[in-house]
Amino acid sequence: MSLTADSVPRLPRGVRLRHDTVRNAHVLLAPERTFDLDQNAVAVLSLVDGSRSIRAIAETLAQQYAVDLGVIEPDVIAMLDGLLLKRVLETVPAA
Amino acid sequence: MNAVTPALPAPIGLLAELTHRCPLRCPYCSNPLELDRRSAELDTATWQRVLTEAAGLGVLHVHLSGGEPTARQDIVAITRTCAELGLYSNLITSGVAGALDKLDALSDAGLDHVQLSVQAVEAANAERIGGLRNAQPQKFAFAERVTALGLPLTLNAVIHRGNIAEVPALIDLALRLGAKRLEVAHTQYYGWAYVNRAALMPAKADVDRSIRTVEEARERLKGQLVIDLVVPDYYAKYPKACAGGWGRRLMNVTPTGKVLPCHAAETIPGLEFWHVQDRSLGEIWAESPAFRAYRGTDWMQEPCRSCDRREKDWGGCRCQALALAGDAAATDPACSLSPLHGKVQALAIAESALETAPDYQYRTIGGAPRAAMPEGAPV
């Protein structure tokens, strides 16, 4: 089980992206754990909405940061794959 | 409120022990031997004020616990307050009695996660351990409703001599009930579990087998089930950083409003605890003598003081140091570097080798055992 460019990721119920105002950092809140997020992870997760595909997310980021899609897409997949394995990300089933 | 000084870490989690009332009577309950009565419990408004202060201090996760938290009439209102404050709410429940009746309302109020306890897989064994008949079908019905509502479910199983053979079956049960996480938590010997240690202590060979089972299942079920393993202290090499280090990450508010650095801290004599009725949570976190007593590393003795792991495991558990070494500032005897470690291991081996385990002393309100341990037993 791993993601492809066509996968549409979303955060399941019980997983929330939050800005922690006390520590001035973004965190992913999940059952019994908190993931500290770096800027790249925040940029990706801010675009995870259950309707954009990974390709669409990568294209937006490629444009935003002026990098090649071919460079950024594998990074996006790898990062989201990691969250999928930890069961804090899921994919929208194909219609 | 006093501002938190820069050197002071901000708390990340709050364990809200809403009540000590519980339909179950588990002999390893982490509650103190002297249980608080309903008449002394904090009211709704005070809990809501505590939660508001917690969010302001930097708390992200709130564990709604007990006893059985759904025994509180206001559990839905308290959960809604968490949601309004952006706090991540985790319901730690037995899933029996009135829990199912309140579940839909809790979900609507914005509950984030449910942690359901299971005592064993096999019903008769589970109900013997929990001391409540007909608990198992109620738990399964509760789990089914949790997943039907789309809430993430974690199963928590406390492991001991009486259920360690069921670890493989527990993993299957977690999958069958649709849990995303399973906690295989070997008993921590404080509170009621300390009293019942001789009845609960598993054999080393069984512990090793259970750990191998979990490691194998983690690999096999990658992406399907996350399994967290709490290993047993008495057979460990290094101690756990209790609560992530004293006064560093967590605080615990008892049903009557006492604020503790960990749920067993009241067993340490001479510590002064402050109450939420008298002061703000921020003041208590920063200034209360109990939180300051073992925060950081200044209080440490050797071998902790010069150990390069001192900021990794923070000396282990203070309550266990007191119980086993007679000194809350000693190195936790769970650590292989403690001079008492060999004795602690020998004790575990001797207790687990008893041909017949002693009867459980079940947890009861007003029924604290007079002697914490059988005479002559502690090291």
Automatic annotation (TrEMBL), chain A:
GO terms for molecular function: quinone binding. Keywords: PQQ biosynthesis. It comes from the Bacteria. InterPro entries: PQQD, PqqD_bac, PqqD_sf. Pathway: Cofactor biosynthesis; pyrroloquinoline quinone biosynthesis. Coiled coil: none annotated. GO terms for biological process: pyrroloquinoline quinone biosynthetic process. Monomer. Interacts with PqqE. This is Pyrroloquinoline quinone biosynthesis protein PqqD. It comes from Methylobacterium platani.
Automatic annotation (TrEMBL), chain B:
It catalyses: [PQQ precursor protein] + S-adenosyl-L-methionine = E-Y cross-linked-[PQQ precursor protein] + 5'-deoxyadenosine + L-methionine + H(+). Binds 1 [4Fe-4S] cluster. The cluster is coordinated with 3 cysteines and an exchangeable S-adenosyl-L-methionine. [4Fe-4S] cluster binds at C22, C26, C29. One of its GO terms (molecular function) is S-adenosyl-L-methionine binding. Residues 8-220 form the Radical SAM core domain. Pathway: Cofactor biosynthesis; pyrroloquinoline quinone biosynthesis. Its EC number is 1.21.98.4. Keywords: 4Fe-4S, Iron, Iron-sulfur, Metal-binding, Oxidoreductase, PQQ biosynthesis, S-adenosyl-L-methionine. InterPro entries: 4Fe4S-binding_SPASM_dom, Aldolase_TIM, MoaA_NifB_PqqE_Fe-S-bd_CS, PQQ_synth_PqqE_bac, PqqE-like, Radical_SAM_PqqE_MftC-like, rSAM, rSAM_sf. It is an enzyme of class 1 (oxidoreductase). Its cofactor is [4Fe-4S] cluster. Catalyzes the cross-linking of a glutamate residue and a tyrosine residue in the PqqA protein as part of the biosynthesis of pyrroloquinoline quinone (PQQ). NCBIfam families: PQQ_syn_pqqE (TIGR02109), rSAM_more_4Fe4S (TIGR04085). PANTHER family: PQQA PEPTIDE CYCLASE, RADICAL SAM DOMAIN PROTEIN. Interacts with PqqD. The interaction is necessary for activity of PqqE. Belongs to the radical SAM superfamily. PqqE family. This is PqqA peptide cyclase. It comes from Methylobacterium platani.
